[in-house]
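Before drawing any conclusions, I looked closely at one protein's amino acid sequence and its backbone structure tokens, quoted below without any editing.
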Amino acid sequence: MLISYLWLSEFLKITLPPRELADRLTAAGLAVEGIHTANDDFILDFDLTSNRPDCLSHLGIAREVAVIEQQELFIRNAPVSLIETLPSLISTEELPITYQFKSMIPSCVPVTPPALYVV
């Protein structure tokens, strides 16, 4: 899995250079197989095991870095709006117990194309 060093810096203030960060993460159990450069950024190439699904995103890796560097994470709250009346795709008439289905649709979340080196 590829993780951007610059994107990690959006979650916390990284004080370690990329190579030292990779070594510390590998020592902590997240194997970094390599470091690549792309557009003034460093890309960390992780070999994640199936028992670490919490690290399958930039936020998950940032949490690990925060523990290593003993720092706080900067997590932005994304505004969401609750939509109460969505068309029902599931018929509850045949179910023996009455179930309540709710949906949440995030709003005001910008959708942008990924960086070229992520694709």
Summary: Residues 24 and 68 are 7 Å apart (CA to CA). Confidence is low (pLDDT under 50) at residues 82-86.
